[in-house]
Structures are given as structure tokens and as C-alpha cells.
Design goal:
This protein is an alpha+beta fold. It folds into two domains: 243 residues, BirA Bifunctional Protein, domain 2 (2-Layer Sandwich); 82 residues, 2-Layer Sandwich (Enolase-like, domain 1), CATH 3.30.390.50. It contains twelve helices and 15 strands. The strands form three sheets. The chain has an eight-stranded mixed beta sheet with strand order 7-8-9-10-6-2-1-12, with helices on both faces. β7 and β8 form a beta hairpin. It is elongated and about 75 Å long.
Amino acid sequence: MQLLEMQGTDPYTNLATEDYILSNYCADDYLLLWRNDNTIVVGLHQNTREEINAAFAEQNNIRVVRRRTGGGAVYHDLGNLNFSFITEARDASRLTMERFTLPVVRALAAMGLNAEASGRNDILVNGSKISGNAQCLHKERILHHGTLLFDADLSVAGKALQVKPEKFVSKSVKSVRARIGNIKDFLRPAMRMEDFSENLAQRLLRDNFAQTGQSGVLELTAHDLRAIAELRENKYATWEWNYGRSPAFNFRNIQKYAGGFLEVLLDVEEGRIKACKFFGDFMALRPAAEVAEKLLGSKYTRAGAAAVLEQMPLEEFFGGICQNEILDCLFN
């Protein structure tokens, strides 16, 4: 098994690196350790808008990225350590999460933690979830990755992932919330993130070393780094991947403002508004359907909708309801 400890904290680069190694490095087994700074990571089959508090994310410079594995949305900050195993799939019909979660459980237990695998893809310490895991196949290879909450800001995680799912109707995979905790709170004696990461790497490599008889460090070439940068720009940092790939969904919201009630109904496909209707008791001189028609085909983003609304005399369509209030209703 070869170890790669990523030094950067850019989520688009980290996920591109993981993707690149899965697709291009086929000779050995790999363990990747990495951290993202202030990021929401959504699952492959999720509706991004349904899983994130978009206003909070924008206000707090929290980036949003889609990974290539399934499962639910998670929040990452520098107090969260991520691990990835990339190896031969062997018999795909017998693939289990335990093949990868149990070595992590053993490593945590060796540090004195009361760790256990739980449910389909979680790891618990003292009954609190400290790790969620997901995996996918690429040809004859498997990627398994997971989070390890070490010293994350759990209050921010709660706000960043706080949504009102009753306003969305879609066939996307919904996240399941659970009671979470930080590993640091259970460690005795205390340990820094750097020491924890090193300890974890050594134990996971030793666990694998006993089986394969070899271990080393993966060094990426200049060619690798250029290819990863291209993958970052063309896939992981794009709106099309992170939002446009979301399953089709319907959105309904109603708000009461000083200028009256405003209700909006939307159909969104491939991240763009395909149908839009406004209702309410606001004092209008012209039908709001004219505004709704202008929004068709635009990206379902606050900036995209604002660019359309700015070109129209909104007071004629919505009376005393202003542009920011319309945007708030459109985007929860």
C-alpha cells in the first residue's frame, strides 16, 4: 500500500486527485489522507439544492462540491480528516463496507477509543457518529472513502446542512442526520490533529503491511499534477457537475412580506428552471407570468435569477415586494 498525504485543502483539487488516482493508478493499493476547508460535499445522486443551506453557504464562503460516490451530504472543515482506500475490487458481488471500515475501527481502538462499525456505513465512538463512508467501482478498482470528525465545528455543520426538505419533491437520495461527535473529545490523553493523522496512517499501513508485505509513499509526477488541475477545472469546480447534475425536482415556497403574500412553484431539470409560476395577493399592474417566462432556462442560482430580475420593472409585476424578497422566496 502506498500513502499519499495531500497538503492542500481545496476540495475541488482533492476530489480531482482522488478521481485521477482511481482512474490511472492500477498497479498497487493506495491510502489517501486529506482535508477540505469549509466545504459541503454532496453525494453523487443528490439534489444539491435540497441538501444545503445555500444562503448560509454563500454568506460564509462555504464551497459546494459533488463527489463520485453515493450517500448523503457532509460538511468538511480543517477539523475533519478524510481517508480514501483505492484497491482491487476482487469479487464485486461480495463487496462490503466492513472490508474498509474495520481497519479504521481497529486503528481507533488501538488509540483507546470505544469504536465500532454501525449500520450500513457509519463508525461510532461512544455511540456518537464520527465517520460516514461511501464507495464506488471503476472498472476492476474500488474507491472507498470516509470522514473522520476529529475537531470539526459541529455548529457550522448543522447550519450548513439545515434545509426544509418539505419544499422539495424529487427522487434524489436524501441525507440521514445522526447524532455526531468529535474524536478529540473522547481521546485520553489529548492529541493534536497532526499526531492523530500520523498515528492513523501508521496503523492502517501496518495493518495492510502484514497482508501485502510492502508499503511506501506515492509521489505524483508533473504530468499527474497537470492532469489533476485539468480535471479540477473541467469537472469538480464546475457548476454543471456540482449543481447541474442534480436530479429533476419540484420546489414550492410561500412567504409573507409587507407587500403581500408571494408563492412560487418551480420545476428544475439539469440545474435550470424549466417551469415557473408566481401566485399571491400583491398589488400588480402586469401579470407576474411575464417574469416567470423570462426565468425559464436560466441556472437555478440566486445570481442567475438576479440577472434576469434586474432587467425588469418589478414594481409593475409584484407591487411592494422587492427583488431581494423575490429571490429569498425562489431560493428558500
